[in-house]
Specification:
about 700 residues, alpha/beta, seven-stranded mixed beta sheet, 26 helices, 20 strands, about 35% helix, elongated
């Protein structure tokens, strides 16, 4: 199923036996099992009644790739960002302990357990140690299963992880332990008694080989390491651990990709996450073969590959350039950099906060750090980005891969917050390449900027060329049209903006001028001047519409016009609504939000009609679906009850739609504006747990 749909393959192959043992020993959901990270939970899903759902894994309205409360009561926390499960476990254990103190006990009188399965590099994150400290201090009854496969996405970078797994490699421990066991068992008469002390002997031996009894120093009992693929042994150890009166760690040694030759032979990632890039590739999988189909390349150039090439070129020119990543060297395009400049490459493990603060320190010493990170994981180090990098105006360039709507991994992985966050940090430069060919020149500009900067681009392939290569600090004219209607396509959505303009022109609608800003801040003065002179300004972005790049550019246009004593443009900012978007294909999600070519065209036409920029057409002459229609998903007072409405920031300057928000008959939130003309409303079908704003 995973080879057909894509998903986390190697991680789950390594956790089969331990998950079976967990469900034999513990009574989920009464006994809480929390996975860290959640992509190890496929076997858990199969064992809790969701086997049939794997044919639609990570597909729209199908099974999530992570635990999901709305799928099953056996799923406690979605937990797709690492190193949080121990904090959850501590909180749950404390809650249950206090309930017992109030006399609230299960009717059957059975003790309820809290289990945290920590693996795939989750123990490299600092938050995990904060939780361990508190678990040990409070003596909370938590069973911690350490799934030690020596990896996160790639081999784990951690002194502690290396220290723990010395035992799997140290021949002294294995050899002496085996010899001791044999001698003890062969002792006449006292063999059985001596055997009872064997565990104590091996514990002492373990301390000789590994002197730092890390967990027990924190007040957490440690046992292991054990073969995590031996179900009987793991089951026995779990039963013993379940009776321990305080916190206990069960250390299991596992092999990522266990039992599947293509995964075991993948030295880089052990098929951590298998990607299907085309329907033809997914159909080529045969259950009768032990091979992984080779995905057919999707059309278009990869932004990540363009970045990898550009970074090498920059590093060759600047010996002060260094690269940092948080356990994602392969996915962020740094493997070639690591090979070429190992002394200038830093993988800090799943420790984004440290990566950002360390980069600030490096910049302080004259280096040019490039922090390569998924957009969604930037949220883990916002404080360091703002106060360590931003406040001190350090020369740190953040490269946010997987920006915008990412799709299959769901609400926790959409990279929709980076623009909003970056624009809230004073003087941080923001670069948005609209196509892969623009990555190199914009990376060069970011590195040349004297201060902090962000370069962000999507996971999806680049479709281009869209226009001539841009000049440093300047915007690009992608399509010439009427100056009184300007359409700005930000980053990836420049392509959709061009499509929208073509639809409008071919349908007899407005002829907008289409611009690619390239640099959001510091904005090109000529771009701001052009925007300020327009009668209607429409922006489209694949980030949060609230406080995003579109509203930022609209404000600059207003300020420019006001400085010259002119009225600013009417503006319509299109973007991603505030909410948790469920998993699905990126293009499908964008279409549902009205952020594809037809959706943008419809929104622009409706705004132009409302403001008298185009004449009202008779009902029968209005554009139909596939071109334009009157129901333009721009959430004004005429928005219908379509469940796929897009939220827009409709800053109707000089107007007042007024009115209070209301709910329609389906319970969806329908805003009617709030003084500034902003209206919000979107369908529940796209969102996890019906979350709306």
């Amino acid at each position: 199923s995973v080879c057909r749909t894509g998903g986390h393959l190697g991680s789950n192959l390594g956790a089969v036996e331990l998950t079976i043992a967990l469900h034999r020993v513990f009574d989920s959901p009464e006994d809480v099992i929390v996975f860290d990270t959640g992509h190890q939970a496929y076997v858990h899903k199969i064992l809790t009644g969701r086997r049939e759902g794997f044919s639609h894994l990570r597909q729209a309205r199908g099974l999530s790739g992570y635990p999901n409360r709305h799928e099953s009561p056996h799923d406690v926390v979605e937990n797709s960002h690492a190193s949080t499960a121990l904090s959850w476990a501590h909180g749950i254990a404390v809650g249950r302990s206090l309930a017992e103190g109030r006399g609230e006990r299960p009717r059957d009188g059975r003790m309820r357990h809290v289990v945290a399965v920590v693996g795939d590099g989750a123990l490299t994150g600092g938050m995990a140690y904060e939780a361990l400290n508190n678990i040990g201090h409070s003596a909370a009854r938590v069973v911690i299963v350490l799934n030690d496969n020596g990896r996160s996405y790639a081999p784990t970078i951690s002194k502690l992880s290396g220290s723990l797994t010395q035992l799997r490699l140290d021949p002294r421990y294995v050899r002496v332990k085996g010899a001791l066991k044999g001698v003890v068992e062969d002792m006449p008469v006292v063999g059985r008694v001596a055997g009872q002390s064997f565990r104590g002997l091996t514990s002492a031996l373990r301390e000789v080989v590994e002197p730092h009894v890390f967990f027990e120093a924190l007040g957490v009992r440690y046992t292991g390491p054990l073969d995590g693929h031996d179900i009987a042994q793991v089951e026995q150890a779990l039963r013993r651990a379940s009776s321990w009166p305080g916190p206990i760690v069960l250390h299991l040694l596992t092999n990522k990709g266990k039992g599947y030759a293509p995964a075991e032979e993948d030295d880089v990632a052990r098929l951590h996450d298998y990607k299907v890039t085309s329907p033809r590739a997914s159909r080529s999988f045969s259950e009768a073969t032990d091979t992984v189909p080779v995905p057919t390349e999707a059309p278009g150039e990869s932004y990540t590959e363009a970045f990898a090439t550009a970074l090498l070129a920059e590093a060759a020119r600047d010996e002060r350039l260094v690269a940092l990543t948080a356990a994602m060297p392969g996915p962020t395009g740094l493997l070639s950099f690591e090979a070429a400049y190992p002394e200038r490459f830093f993988d800090v493990g799943i420790a984004e906060q440290h990566a950002m603060a360390a980069a600030a320190g490096m910049a302080r010493e004259g280096l040019h750090p490039v922090v390569c990170i998924y957009s969604t994981f930037l949220q883990r180090c916002v404080d360091q980005w703002n106060l360590d990098v931003g406040l001190h105006h350090e020369h740190v360039t953040v490269v946010a891969d997987r920006a915008g709507i990412t799709g299959d991994d769901g609400p926790s992985h959409h990279g929709i917050y980076d623009l909003h966050t970056a624009l809230s940090i004073p003087d941080l430069a923001v670069y948005c390449p609209a196509e892969a060919a623009e990555v190199a020149p914009l990376l060069h500009d970011a590195l040349a900027y004297e201060g902090p900067s962000l370069v962000r681009y999507p996971k999806t392939p680049s479709i281009g060329p869209l226009g001539r290569r841009g000049e440093p600090g300047r915007h690009r004219l992608l399509r010439e049209g009427d100056d009184d209607v300007v359409l700005v396509g930000i980053g990836k959505l420049a392509s959709a903006a061009l499509e929208a303009a073509a639809i409008l022109e071919s349908s007899g609608g407005p002829r907008p001028t289409v611009l690619d800003p390239r640099v959001i801040r510091p904005a090109d003065p000529d771009l701001v001047a052009a925007l300020s002179r327009a009668r209607l300004l429409v922006t489209a972005e694949d980030g949060l519409v609230e406080g995003g790049a579109g509203s930022y550019l609209a404000r600059l246009a207003d300020e420019e016009a006001a400085a010259e004593g002119r009225e600013g443009p009417r503006s319509l900012s299109l973007g991603v609504p505030v909410g948790f978007l469920a998993h699905g294909k990126p293009d499908d999600i964008l279409e549902s939000l009205g952020l594809d070519g037809p959706g943008i065209a419809a929104s622009l036409y409706e705004a132009a009609r409302r403001y008298g920029i185009v004449e009202e057409k008779p009902e029968e002459e209005r554009f139909v679906e596939g071109e334009l229609d009157d129901d333009s998903n721009n959430n004004d007072d005429n928005a219908d009850d379509n469940a796929d409405d897009v939220v827009v920031d409709n800053a109707d300057h000089g107007t007042d739609d007024g009115g209070e928000g209301e709910r329609d008959s389906d319970g969806d939130s329908r805003g009617r504006g709030a003084g500034n003309g902003r209206a919000e409303g979107f369908g529940q079908s796209l969102f996890s747990s019906g979350s709306t704003s």
